[in-house]
Amino acid sequence: MLPEEVPEPKREAGPRSNSSSTRWQEPAPAAESGSTPVRRRRRWPWALGVVAVLAVLAGALALAWFVPIFRVSTIAVDGTRQIDQQSVLDASGLTEGENLLRIDTTDAARGVVSLPRVREATVARAFPDTVRIEVVERRVAAWIDDSGQPVLIDERGEPFSDGEPPESAVRLEGVRQDQTEELAGAVAVAAALSDESARLVDHLRVEGPSAYTLHLDDGRTVFWGAPVDNENKAVALETVLKREGSSWNISNPAMVTVR
């Protein structure tokens, strides 16, 4: 008896893809028996906390900005010798009772620098209630009498007008403002003198590029020579001022002589 032929299963006809590529899709992993699903931790409570802190800080700053919690009760001025402190306060525009946070330190410093004898100014807050103004003054080293009006000259040789010169400023003679080289030399000599020595000088006469002579209040003269080696000559001058003699030569500070 012949075995029966088992017919092959028919394949269902379906549309064939014209694409030569094959797309694979990984099967979903089977869930393990007894496993616990993993959930992501929610971080939004932490974010809300940070936002809340920032909101509180912003509110506190806004309150301090619009409500004068930090009031200015002290305005301290440092560095003044020639200028009275009230002039500095007036120029700064600052007043007690202002909101410390809202003062314009840049504008205040600009106002102080507008004073002729001020070279630099720094304005800073010092919580909770203080403003500090630090002043760097221009040193008036010399001055020239211009038709009865004093023209002040600072240690950098910059002329300006601001009332009477201090006692330590040396009056210059024999030189004009347009004589740049001679004026620079005279200012360098005057700036080298100590305040104590400068107060004993009636004037400094410029007789030539290398001929500068100090005329003292008591009538004595000290020949300085060229405006070089000024620091050592200033030391020699202090020695000469303690000695007798009506005319001295310190053009060579290592060999002081009587003229």
TrEMBL record:
<dbReference type="GO" id="GO:0051301">
    <property type="term" value="P:cell division"/>
</dbReference>
<dbReference type="InterPro" id="IPR005548">
    <property type="entry name" value="Cell_div_FtsQ/DivIB_C"/>
</dbReference>
<protein>
    <submittedName>
        <fullName>Cell division protein FtsQ</fullName>
    </submittedName>
</protein>
<feature type="domain" description="POTRA">
    <location>
        <begin position="70"/>
        <end position="138"/>
    </location>
</feature>
<keyword id="KW-0131">Cell cycle</keyword>
<dbReference type="InterPro" id="IPR013685">
    <property type="entry name" value="POTRA_FtsQ_type"/>
</dbReference>
<feature type="region of interest" description="Disordered">
    <location>
        <begin position="1"/>
        <end position="36"/>
    </location>
</feature>
<dbReference type="InterPro" id="IPR050487">
    <property type="entry name" value="FtsQ_DivIB"/>
</dbReference>
<keyword id="KW-0472">Membrane</keyword>
<dbReference type="InterPro" id="IPR034746">
    <property type="entry name" value="POTRA"/>
</dbReference>
<keyword id="KW-1003">Cell membrane</keyword>
<dbReference type="Pfam" id="PF03799">
    <property type="entry name" value="FtsQ_DivIB_C"/>
</dbReference>
<keyword id="KW-1133">Transmembrane helix</keyword>
<dbReference type="Pfam" id="PF08478">
    <property type="entry name" value="POTRA_1"/>
</dbReference>
<dbReference type="GO" id="GO:0005886">
    <property type="term" value="C:plasma membrane"/>
</dbReference>
<feature type="transmembrane region" description="Helical">
    <location>
        <begin position="46"/>
        <end position="67"/>
    </location>
</feature>
<keyword id="KW-0132">Cell division</keyword>
<keyword id="KW-0812">Transmembrane</keyword>
